[in-house]
Design goal:
307 residues; alpha/beta; 27% strand; 8-stranded parallel beta sheet; CobW/HypB/UreG_nucleotide-bd; 6-stranded antiparallel beta sheet; P-loop_NTPase; 11 helices; Hypothetical Protein Yjia, Chain: A,domain 2; GTP-binding protein; Zinc-reg_GTPase_activator
Length: 307
């Protein structure tokens, strides 16, 4: 029988967006038959009183220093090991507003936790006014928090104009990889059902929206499970060969796990570039062109995997 893994939910977000309030809203809705444990930063913006949470029957561990990613390693590992002795159904992790969320996920995927934990829905709480501000969007830390999440939560919406919210949704819809859910909330109140939103895409999928399909464009997406490394040189050759593998190539972009890190590749106007990204859920590639052989494209991608 396979060992039942504990589900882990990371709640990330910039300073002052309402992460602690969001976590408290989930705790208030918890099924009494589920066993939760909580891991938080000791110096959070609001701070969670461990004694109060213990009164609610939920064990709490606090990481000193105010930044989970900096504490990742002995301190975070020992805290997790202690919490797992309770055999919980879920671990809720509130990351510091200054945490590189991808580093936390990477730590959860190392031994011995990889065999004990399932990375379930990851949340990032944002202020839409910051999200649409280029000064925030260009910060590596902010991009990291946006990139890692499955569910993007717009908080403080009462402070936004309709135009700001419309711009938020427009930008959020264009994120790649796409989010499992983008929501607006009042007072950082989350819905408990969002914890179980499916976060794994099927291996092949159609894009939800195309730029202008009047010219007969085709679309296709492909996913590969995390843990499968791609070969950097083979990926380079694949992107170089894309114009020959398709007719009327419009867009090609993907995130790939390469040598233990994650890179974003984007083809546009006959050229492609690469950047590191925080996405950790799966490797995926999306393509829009007038015509192509989807089976051939998938085979070429598989050929680019590490042998």
């Amino acid at each position: 029988m396979p060992i039942k893994k504990t589900k882990v939910h990371l709640i990330s977000g910039f300073l002052g967006t309402g992460k602690t309030t969001a976590l408290k809203s989930l705790m208030a809705q918890k099924d009494p038959n589920e066993k939760w444990v909580i891991l938080v930063n000791e110096f959070g913006e609001i701070g969670i009183d461990g004694a109060v949470l213990s009164d609610e029957g939920i064990p709490v561990a606090e990481i000193a220093g105010g930044c989970l990613c900096c504490a990742a390693g002995p301190q975070m590992g020992s805290a997790l090991a202690k919490l797992l002795r309770n055999e919980p159904d879920r671990i809720m992790i509130e990351a510091s507003g200054l945490a590189h969320a991808a580093s936390v996920i990477d730590e959860l995927k190392t031994a011995p936790f990889a065999d004990q934990l399932e990375i379930a829905a990851v949340f990032t709480v944002v202020d839409p006014r910051q999200f649409i501000n280029p000064d925030y969007a260009q910060q590596a830390l902010y991009k990291d928090q946006i990139g890692i999440c499955d569910i993007l939560v717009a908080s403080k919406t009462d402070l936004c104009t309709p135009e700001q919210l419309a711009e938020f949704h427009d930008k959020a819809a264009k994120l790649f990889p796409p989010k499992a859910k983008v929501v607006e909330v009042q007072n950082a109140q989350l819905d408990i059902q969002w914890l179980d939103i499916p976060v794994i895409e099927k291996s092949r999928y159609r894009l939800k929206a195309l730029p202008d399909n009047t010219m007969g464009f085709q679309s296709q997406g492909f996913t590969f499970p995390a843990g499968q490394d791609f070969d950097g040189e083979r990926l380079t050759n694949f992107f170089n060969d894309l114009p020959k593998l398709t007719e009327g190539l419009v867009r090609a972009k993907g995130v790939f796990q390469v040598l233990g890190t994650w890179v974003w590749l984007n083809w546009v106007d006959g050229q492609w570039g690469a950047n590191q990204v925080a996405w950790r859920r799966d490797s995926r590639f999306e393509l829009i062109a007038k015509s192509f052989d989807a089976d051939l494209i998938e085979q070429k991608l598989r050929d680019a995997l590490e042998k």
